[in-house]
Amino acid sequence: MIKSELVSRLAERNPHLYQRDVEHIVNAVLDEITSALTRGDRVELRGFGAFSVKNRPARTGRNPRTGQKVAVTEKYVPFFKTGKEMRERLNDGVDLGD
Amino acid sequence: MTGKTITRADLCEAVYQKVGLSRTESADLVEMVLGEISNCLVEGESVKLSSFGTFLVRSKGERIGRNPKTGEEVPISPRRVMVFKPSNVLKQKINDTLGDDE
Lengths: 98, 102
Hints:
The complex is a heterodimer.
Chain A: H1 3-13, H2 19-38, E1 42-45, E2 49-56, E3 59-62, E4 69-72, E5 75-82, H3 84-90
Antiparallel strand pairs in A: 1-2, 2-5, 3-4
Chain B: E1 5-6, H1 8-19, H2 23-42, E2 47-49, E3 53-60, E4 63-66, E5 73-76, E6 79-86, H3 88-100
Antiparallel strand pairs in B: 2-3, 3-6, 4-5
């Protein structure tokens, strides 16, 4: 499913809303998560999962082909941890642990 | 980093402010967005949200794990897991703001 399909499915379930409004809603949700992460904040959505940002410190990497050393700068990467309810739903309602 | 945690309430507020639905309806819609994504994944279908990222489901076979505390070997049963692959746009945005000021 892509974003436009998500919008159509939601619009179908909400005939009182314009498709354009539904699009704004989906974008508002994604933008809010994005801007939280750009501030380094965590986004916790119980049952679904939690988004956070992890820091990858600068390090000296190596070109695996030549073995040459290369400087890798510090990086921030978005991280997602699946929520408990979602984990269970993917496995027929059984919580298999982390 | 401010170290705050954003929750459903903040997403509802954002929808309320930007779209102009009632608070109750904003909350319902946020729930439906997450619900629709979840249902898709449970069906095994991936969800691709451009400039944000992709949620996908991976099937893992059985493997042998180890209790890190006791060193004891334990079988890990086959399972389905959800994975989020952030888009390059999202990664770029995060590094643009967090990258310089620290």
